[in-house]
Amino acid sequence: MTADPVATFALGNIARSPGDSTGNNSSKSMELEAFWAPFLLLHLGGPDTITSYSREDNELWSRRLLEFLFQVVTAIYVFMRSLRKHPLSLLAIPMLITGILKYGERTLVLKLSSAKKLKDSLYPAPDPGPDILGRDTVLDMDTVTQMGTSTDLVPVRIEKSECSNPKDDYLASHFLFKRFRYLFADLVLGYHEQKESYDIIRIRSAAEAFKLVAIELGFMYDVLYTKATIVYSKFGILLRCIYLFSHIFVSVFFLIIIQKHAYPTIDVCITCVLLFGAVVLEIFSFIALVLFSDWSKLWWTKLKNAKRVSTSCCNCLLAINSKRWSRSMGQKNLISYCLERVSVRSFQNVFGINELWSLTWKDVNDDLQEFIFKQLLNKGKKIEEGGFTVELCKEFLAQRGDYALSERFCLDEFRWSTLDVEFDHSLLLWHIATDLCYYSDFNEDDPDNLHPKCKIISKYLSDYMLYLLIMCPNMLPKGFGEMRYRDTCAEAVRFFQKTVSRASHRSDKSSKIRKACRNILQVNTDSSLERKKGDKSKSVLFFGCRLAKQLQALEFEEDGMNNIEEKWEMISEFWVEMLAYAGSLCEWKEHGQQLRKGGELITHVSLLITHLGLSEKYQVRSRLGIWSAFFAEMLAVIIVIEIASSKEWLSVWLDCDSVSVVYCLLNPNYQPPWKLYVAGIIVALYHAMYQDTGFELLSRRLVKQLQALEVEDDGMNNIEEKWEMISEFWVEMLAYAGSRCEWKEHVQ
Asked: Which of 326, 321, 353 has the alpha carbon at shortest distance from 340?
């Protein structure tokens, strides 16, 4: 991060140094210093593997453009000032050109990766639609049906032939990536995109699906934070070759031809280091470009399928492992953290050191991936069976633990801790309850007595969700989570200070937590708890204790059989639902921010949910395969008439609410086989199917309605009242937009 200011400072110092000097050594030293200026431009251009450290850097590309212009002018000034008839001036020319190109590449990539430019690049070309004023235009029913069932909502319809082998990881990942980038730009996709993505994911195992998503997010990371948009093209590869050969040529020329003894030794050493560093960086970038990049592996895969290169060579290159994300998830435990606050020194609490020290990390292992994927895939199959309808999709997305409880007929008993409270409230309640149940069921003599779902899934996901609440609150639904967490911690610390003895501080961590959980479970949490707590504090410590006691009561059925495994399976499914619910509501820009830190598990789960059809980002069609209520009613009328004709009925009663459909049936120009004229019903039909185009006609209809308000029944002109109504409408629109805008956007 200090490379840019250091290079800028050095370039400024070179520019400020005097252009001529009476001393011979000073003159020679100035020649070398002028030769360094292009190298500083190279360093300002940065490596190919990183261009920005956050999304905000991309949005500030215009500032980078000004810096680029200023630095280039400065470097050219230094070069022209020292331009003389000596070999170093000739060597500086190719370095200056490559430096300007590399620095310009970085500025261009920042612009292309900005949110607005990324979205603009994905927008389709403006489509005014057919000319509805052409009276001679006639559309038959086949054309209308194609219009009604069109799902070409994205600018580029990605044909499935591009993914000729859906089982190949790189081809499938790139195929899905082309869809994912539209969602990242807050655009929507159509039914076919939803179905094809689901077909690719459902045939894979959990490990394969997570690997697919990891490659896909790697593509997205490269687009946002590296020079991938330029590098992985024919022009980009050509530039890389030019950079490498020019650096090698200048280095060899300097080492062989330049008389180094004529220059100060320290300056020659610095020049050699700069040349060596430039060559090494270019070689490293070129190797990474060819061998270790997912983009290059995608390219090699396409060549292998086209049989243009040796299959064995491609397999060797594809076998090279590239680590795409950490495969780890942060862990934050409330009870453990509060116990540490009681025992550690006060200055650690003041400076927040204990808050960071309490964080741990766990691997996202195969068992956890398998359980998450299995639960998501089951919901995806139900969405597919239901025809990917909007209602079913929204129903599954709204589940945050209630589905796992309702499957075991205990939703009513636990509704107070799920649906009746906010998300962050429910998260803290179940986090505390999971911890209390975990250490209550944990047997010190037999540490392996618990079911793996308890140790791996329930406990790890519980701690991970609390980690997100504290360290990544923007990725979770908005609420008072941080305030509830602080109040709960304050109450827990006060409770432990009264109940935990000083002797227990010297015991091991596991024993200390187990004793603390036992003390919490001994607290009376009957119906009088609400009256004792009041509404002032938002602490949920003992409400979580009440929930834990309810969960423990589920262990014994009427026949006395211990069903502890079923209880922990329910808790595990609850946390997967909570994770999926949070992931589906998190904005994609927040997921993009986390990619620069190695990625989060919730981002991978969110993308899996989307590919399985569980997302509102799809323009989901109805069960009839059509887009509007009017078109559905129109087809229903057609079917009724066809049935009546086949049965030779003389009359049929149609209960139809659509004026347009009635007009179509009463139109004397109407003749089978349902040819619809633009002058009639096809205008309304077109607007019903394409609600995002043809606003001109709708605007004219609105203008006529507003003009009709000017004359009342008594003939009095009420134009002032009309304009007052329009003014109030726009004030309401402004207030609505302001209430929906986040405060951080207002601050920006």
From this structure: 353
CA angle centred on 642, ends 637 and 643, rounded to 5° = 100
Residue 478: other Cβ atoms inside 10 A: 12
Tokens of 402: 């209630």
**C-alpha–C-alpha distance, residues 33 and 31, integer Å:** 6
d(CA 25, CA 21): 9
Q: In this structure, what token pair is assigned to residue 439?
A: 């250490």
What residues have CB less than 8 Å from 76, skipping those under 6 apart?
96
d(CA 290, CA 449): 50
| pLDDT tens by residue, 463-482 | 999 999 999 999 999 888 89
Residue 82 in tokens: 């020292």
460: amino acid identity, one letter = Y
Distances (CA, A) of 419 to 423, 463, 531: 8, 21, 22
The reported pTM is 0.79
Closest CA to 564 of 576, 575, 572, 556: 556
Going from the C-alpha of 97 to that of each of 79, 208, 242, the distances in angstroms are 12, 45, 11
579 neighbors 461 (Cβ within 8 angstroms): yes
Alpha carbon distance, N-terminus to C-terminus of the chain: 24
Domains of the chain, by residue range, sit at: 3-122+233-292, 330-364+410-585
Strand partners, 730: none
User: Structure tokens of 4?
Assistant: 């840019």
Nearest in space to 229 (alpha carbons), one of 188, 181, 162 = 181
For 630, 654, 677, 682, the CA distances from 667, given in Å and listed in that order, are 17, 16, 11, 13
Judged by DSSP in three states, 677 sits in: strand
**Which one, of 297, 168, 330, 280, lies nearest residue 222 by Cα?**
297
Instruction: Write the DSSP assignment of 412-432 as a string of letters.
Output: HHHGGGTTTS-HHHHHHHHHH
Q: Phi first, then psi: what are they for 385, rounded to 5°?
A: -65, -30
Cβ atoms of 42 and 5 within 8 Å: the answer is: no
Q: Tokens for 307?
A: 């049989």
CA angle 90, 95, 99 (to 5 degrees): 150
Query: Cα–Cα distance between 46 and 44 in angstroms, integer?
Result: 5
Q: What is the pLDDT of residues 318-366, one digit of tens each?
A: 666 666 778 899 999 999 999 888 876 554 555 556 667 788 999 998 8
Task: Please identify which residue in the block is written with the tokens 């603009």.
Answer: 120
For 161-172, give the secondary structure using H, E and C: HHHCCCCCHHHH
